[in-house]
Amino acid sequence: MTDSSRRPLAVFDLDNTLADTAHRQRFLERRPRDWDAFFAAAPKDPPLAEGVRLARESARECEVVYLTGRPERCRRDTLDWLAAHGLPEGRVHMRRDDDRRPARRAKLETLRRLARGREIGVLVDDDELVCADAEQAGFTVLRARWAAPSADLKDAQEREGRT
Question: Which among 35, 43, 45, 79 has most CB atoms closer than 10 A?
Fold first, then answer.
């Protein structure tokens, strides 16, 4: 077995990359948005087969870590969800509960921090702005295009810094 500290990192987003959020989008369509209900429904997210398959395959050559815009208060539900769906064990990087920066800024900061100590083999994310900024910063990116896009989620990620 390869020493995991020398293996590159495969960094996976959660929402609409591994977890299908379609059933909880309705909470973002309201004004004001119901963030508590949106995150409370996350444990019921069905897994996205393509993302789960890719995470499992990546674990053969890489150490899998998770980078999500979900707030820290969702950690227990997130860890339980990952385990329930047989995803590889890995560190989960989440936003501070009060962090409202756009997803692309928050995630790029974490990617750069991770890259100081390890090679980043790939970032897998559905957010086009996150992907574009990560590519511009020199990271290898795989765009997760296997979930139905949500304009409300995209707006929340960029304008409200919520996921």
Answer: 45
